Amino acid sequence: MRSCPSSLKKDIFMKGLLVLILFSPLLAFAQSPFDGTWVIDTNAQLPQKPTEYLLAKGMFRCVGCNASPEIKADGHDQKVGETGYWDTESVRVVDTQTVEIVSKKAGKTMFAEVDTVSPDGGTLTQLIKDTTEAEPVTIEILSRRVAPGPRSAHALSGSWQAYKIDRSRNGSTITYKCTADGFSAETPLGERFDAKFDGRDYPIEDDPGHTTVSVKLLSQSAVDVTSKRNGKVVGILHLVVLPGGKSINVVFENRESNTESSYQMQKQP
After folding, report:
1. Kind and range of the H or E element at 16?
2. How does strand 88-93 pair with strand 98-105?
3. Is the Cβ–Cβ distance between 205 and 212 less than 8 Å?
4. Which residues contact 173 (CB under 8 A, 6 or more apart)?
5. For the stretch 146-182, what's the b/e string if a residue is b when 16 or more beta carbons lie within 10 angstroms of its beta carbon?
6. Tell me: the pLDDT tens digits for 31-41?
7. Which residues of 71-103 are buried (b: 16+ CB within 10 A; e: fewer)?
8. Top-level CATH class of 28-43+172-267?
9. What is the pLDDT of residue 209?
């Protein structure tokens, strides 16, 4: 059998190399480590910045919340600075340990929250029902007291450090898809986006807050998702798939409350 001339061998090698270069992005993303359904791990590192409440003399104020107006604690809806998800709030004192807070937008209840302080005054349990979607999401947040409120104020008053959060399954699950061109996400409740790696803002469908996102590919296993409302950055999500491909490490910068939290997501079979 005659061997190939050295020049022909070189041509074959170069063509093979060219094909590899041209198609390597497709090969690299054919099995992106992001692809699949993920569930948030409840062992989250919550923001270290405490939240401060003051409920006294019939008035309520939250320092460190996304919207922190001072309003009457009389159970009636009151206008507050409009956010993407509410424009009125009501605060009702249930008893000496419990307060109910309801946030609405255009008259529709978006969040209903019941805050209960333990008998010893050291623990705050917040039960939240998120009704911004067709199916309610329930959230439970546990916080420990780090500073007392004024002696004459309601038990809720003071500074609290969150240490545990649990969300219902429908609010903890998300499906990701990553290609050479872009990144997409979808929840069981219908919220979804499909964004290109071009720096442009893309809408989150079925989001009452009309949030947009832009995505940036840092590596095959790292993506940044920047969220905006009314053109203003409200949050940045840093996603990194850990070695082994079974977990995603998430760091969330909340630009509205100037806090940072981190958690992991586990891949589902």
Report:
1. helix 6-30
2. antiparallel
3. no
4. 37, 38, 39, 40, 187, 188, 268
5. eeebeeeebbbbbbbbbeebebeeebbbbbbebbeeb
6. 899 999 999 98
7. bebeeeeeebeebbbbbbbbbebeeebbbbbbb
8. mainly beta
9. 87
Q: How confident is the model at residue 85 (pLDDT cuts 50, 70, 90)?
A: confident
The DSSP code for 108 is E
Adjacency order of strands within the sheet including 98-105: 71-72, 59-63, 51-56, 158-167, 137-148, 123-130, 108-117, 98-105, 88-93, 78-79
Q: Indicate the burial class of 125 (C-beta count within 10 angstroms; 0-12, 13-18, 19 or more).
A: middle
Asked if 126 and 117 count as a contact pair (C-beta separation under 8 A), the reply is: no
Structure tokens, 258: 């100037």
* Tens of pLDDT, residues 146-193: 999 999 999 999 999 999 888 898 989 999 999 999 999 999 998 999
For residues 53, 162, 93, 70, the Cα torsion angle rounded to the nearest 10 degrees is 30
Residue 128 one-letter amino acid: I
Q: How far apart are CA 163 and CA 55, in angstroms?
A: 22
- pTM score, two decimals? 0.76
Length of the chain: 269
